[in-house]
Amino acid sequence: MPHEIGYVDNSNGTLAHYNMLDKIREVAVASGFWQVMRYDTSVENRELILKGQGYSGAEEIYVGIRTYQSSSADYYNLCVATFTGYVASNTFDTQPSVRLSGVPAHNQRIDYWLTVNPQRIACCMKVGTPVYEHFYIGKFFSYARPSQYPYPVICGGMLSGAAATRYSDTSHSMPYKGNRVQLGMRFNTGVYLQPEAWPWNNTYLTGATQLRDTNDYYPLLPIILSDANGIYGELDGVRYVSGFNNVVENTCGEDWVVLQDVSRTGFVDYIALKLDA
């Protein structure tokens, strides 16, 4: 079950963002690629920590998702994370080399597009009015040998850390668009860099001049990570697609779905998410 499209709600007496956490666990485990290291539903901020095997089948890729919420402020969010290992005695937020990013969700219905492969988990959730909230955790395709860059992981969410932000906030945005603090790339130095993301960092392609379809065929461009020191690689199964004469939830063949950035509908506000087979 490498991808699933569906919804969760609160009809079973459990808040929808808790059910979304359980759905991620269910799909990840059913894929056969991910092992549960921790799943704690006894606490208010429920926690899930997973270990992935990578495409080699012998890797150890550590990612996590936990909930955080406030009934008085009316937000019910997920917080996604990447780690370099797992320590059973450590809290979620103090796992080795932790990087956190919040993702606004909902206590009521959440529609989702969730895709899982051996090295990463990517998702888009439709909540509220509606708006579309994204995350990507796990490895990307590095433009280097494993000996040169052994652990190229991305923690990409919608917020910088576990911010107390409701889905109705108009300033938050998906992590892929150019140079965003909520897109963290772990480098060999042990620090998380804030890479730029092509093509959004190219003002010619996503500025005054807009890419569009060719006779209803839409090119899907890789999202390439770089900074002043060079080009590092590209995301796995997430690509740029033009919003010209395009709408959210369109499909590109059988394998890709078009998704927008929160409530934005401009030409440069869309990605295509691969529905892994």
Low-confidence stretches: none
What fraction strand?
35-45%
Sheet with the most strands: spatial strand order? 1-7-8-9-11-12-13
**Average pLDDT rating:** 96
Major β-sheet annotation: 7 strands, antiparallel
Helices and strands, in N-to-C order? EHEEEEEEEEEEEEEHEEEEE
Shape: globular
Q: Into how many domains do the coordinates divide?
A: 1
Distance between the termini: 8 Å
Q: Can you give the helix content as a percent range?
A: under 10%
Instruction: From the alpha carbons, calculate the radius of gyration and give it in angstroms.
Output: 18 Å
List the total number of helices.
Answer: 2
- What structural category arises from helix and sheet content? mainly beta
Number of strands: 19
Write a concise keyword list for the protein shown above:
277 residues; mainly beta; 7-stranded antiparallel β-sheet; 2 helices; 19 strands
Structural description of this entry:
- The model has no long low-confidence stretch (mean pLDDT 96).
- Helices cover 7% and strands 40% of the residues.
- The protein is built from two helices and 19 strands.
- With 277 residues, it is mainly β.
- It has one domain.
- Strands 1-7-8-9-11-12-13 form a seven-stranded antiparallel sheet, covered by helices on one side. Strands 10, 14, 15, 16, 17, 18 and 19 form a seven-stranded antiparallel sheet that branches. It has a five-stranded antiparallel sheet with strand order 2-3-4-5-6, with helices on one face.
- It is globular.
